[in-house]
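protien #1 (seq + structre)
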Amino acid sequence: MLQLQNISKSYPTASGSIKNKVLDQLSLSIEKGESIAIVGPSGTGKTTLLNIIGTLDKADEGTLLFEGQDLMNLTSKTQPDFRNRKIGMVFQLHHLLPQCTLWENILLPTIPQKLKNGEAEKRAEQLLKRTGIWEQRFQKPTELSGGECQRAAVIRALINQPSLILADEPTGALDEENAEKLADLLLELNKEMGTTLIVVTHSSGLAAKMDKMYRLENGKLHLS
């Protein structure tokens, strides 16, 4: 489903003369429906790797195959549509629009798809009820708890039925109880919907719940 072959990425140092290589000929293969965690110290390139997979950043070299399509060939015009249809993203901060209700925030990604017959609304209702925040759908983010907002962010990531969910420290801003609930929710939806899940996390508890755990060190991934 997803293959990374010899992916490398460097950034200039403060002086601008020497490049700091964060990913070095990195390779990884992920099956459809699999859940994996990527762990490692801060600054090792975990978020960079996730952004490359999500087409938010571009590798200096290598091949990135997604369902047989080489994402390195996507242009700035084709990337947004690909992300909207195929990838759902969850971040440490929910990034819900404060002026919009929960319902409006969740349905925003469906606008470019121009779905008919209330398909998006039906899916939103199912997910909101499934995650226990149906009653809060007309409230704004400032009126909700952190855990509720993060659940809404997960629903927003899933609303277009993507093939892949990328989650960058999704439980990092939550207390222990809500972090546990969100971790379980991500995995339950991963299994129920058959969506591939890649999580970057510092939480050993969250990482242990995944099918596989990789440690990013010296620009390469090592199966833990």
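ok now protien #2
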Amino acid sequence: MRHYRTFPFTDFADYLNAFEDLLHTRTAQGVHTTVGLFDPEEYADFCTDTGLDPDSTSSRACYTAELATTGPALPYDGQPLADHIPALVKEAVRHATWQYATTLLARLGACTSCGQNIGQAAFTRASGLLARILDTARPGKRHLVCSVSAAPEGYFS
């Protein structure tokens, strides 16, 4: 981001300190804040796709607003940023996994014998089973694992 004239930080540590100060200020004011991982490459793509100038503070604001509502993001409630970042990374992995699973299900198409959308039916059945598990499980932590065989893809490249 340093190559953008309007980006005032030259040191990443200074940026993180200023960002954390801003988060603490907003929290102290009672302002709800959602935090996401800002990816400079995705930002550049967003600006290209939307026709926005990437060297603009308002374009960065548009991107972060979009990210907070549609991308992997978590509410900020005052914890140190160093503690918040690993949770954001986990959320980004969950989001990417969800997108990948959605893509796989969407590609399945319709059943040749009944015409039903196979991906939608699989999602509905899996959602129902998960809801039944959660509704009938005793209180406490649970770890569910689901393994699915699928052809390798270059999705994460």
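The radius of gyration is 20 Å.
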